[in-house]
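User: Predict UDP-N-acetyl-D-mannosamine dehydrogenase's structure from this.
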Amino acid sequence: MDSVAIIGLGYVGLPLACLCARKGLTTFGFDVNKKTVEKINAGISHIADAELERQVRKLKGKISATTDEKVISKASVIVVCVPTPVDEKHHPDLYALKSACSSIARNLKKGQLIIVESTIFPGTTEEVVLPILQESGLKPEKDFFLVHCPERIDPGSRKWGIENIPRVLGGMSKEGTKKAKNFYGNVLKAEVFEMNSVKEAEAVKLTENSFRDVNIAFVNELAKSFDKMGIDVADVIRGASTKPFGFMPFWPGPGVGGHCIAIDPYYLIERAKSKGFQHEFLPLARKINDSMPAFVVGLAEFLTGNLEGKKIACLGIAYKADVDDTRESPALKVVELLKEKRAVVKTFDPFVKSKSNCSSLEEAVKEADCVVLLTAHNLFVKTISAEFLKKNNVKAVVDARNALDKDAISAAGIRFKGIGR
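Assistant:
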C-alpha cells in the first residue's frame, strides 16, 4: 500500500493527505472545488491553520490534487473524507458521499481498499456505499475491500493532531479490516482499535459526539438555572472537578458548533427512528443547545435594555477558538437574532474576515453599548481587559465563553454577564 487517494480535501481530508505525503506515500487528492485544488498544488492551504499552512507549503508537489476522478484508479488505498451534513429538516444528507462512491465505482480496480472516514449512521456502509461500489461489477471482499474508520480531528489543537489520535475501524471482512489497520498503522503514532463490525465502527463517532452534546446541554441548562439563583456556574464546575472520580467537566457557552457535535446526534436520532426507536435524551439536548444563542441575546437585552439602535460588538464568528471554521457556529445565529432586534451589529473575527464588518478589534468595540464575546480567540482573551474596555468606552459585556475577568470588569463600572455567572 504505497499510494493513496483522498477524496475530499477539507478539514479532514487535507490533514490526512499531508500526513500520508509526509510518510512517503504517493498521495493523490480529489476534490470538486477547482480553487481548492489549485491552492493545494501551489502549496497554499485553503484552511486557516498555522500548522496546516506550514505543512501544505512544505509538501508542495508531494500532494497531487485534481478535479479529475480518474486519479482514483492510480491508488491502492482510497479514503473518502467528504462532508455528511443534515438538511433543513435535520435529516442526513448523503449527497456528497453518494457522489464520491459513484466516482470510485467508475474508476475502481481490483485489489483496492476503500475506507470511508465521513461520519455516517449505522448501516450506511452496507446499505448505501456498498451497492454503489458494486455497480463497478467487481465483487466486495474479493476484488476490493471496504472499511469504515470514522474521522477524528481536533482543529486548532496543539496537543491532538491527526497523527496521535487513536482510531477505530471496522471492515466488511477480516481481511479488509487487517489491510486497513496496516494502512493506518503505517501513518499513525496512535493505537488503531478493531471493532467487531462495520456498524459498530459507524456507531462510535455518533456516540462520542452525542455524549458531548448531552453533557454540554446539561451544563447549559445548569447555567440558565444558576443565573436565576445567583450562583456562578463556572465556580461550581471547578469545584465539582476536584472530585477525582465520577465527574468530567464540561463548560457552558453560546451554543454548539462545528460539523460534528451539532450534526451527528441527528444521524443517530433519524436512524433509530427508522428502526422503530425514539430517542428522548438526544432531541432534548439539541433543543437546549440550540436555545443558547437566544439566551445570549437575552443577556445583552438585560444589560442594555431595548436593543433597537444599540451598538452591539460581536467578537468571534468561528465556532471555536483560533480556527476559521464557521460551520454551525452559534455566533452566526446570535448575529442574526441581534439584527432581528434592530441592533447595530459590529462583527470582528481575525480568522473569519469575510464575515467581519470591522477591520480591527478596536473598531468593533469602540463606543459599544455592549460587547458580546462569542469565540475565545487568544487575541480577545489577552486583549480584552477592564482597562481596554474603559478606554473604548464600552458600557456592558456579555461573556458567552466565560473567558474574561468578571470581577475586574465589574469593578471598573462596566455591566457584566457571563453564561451562568
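Residues 198-229 form the longest helix (32 residues).
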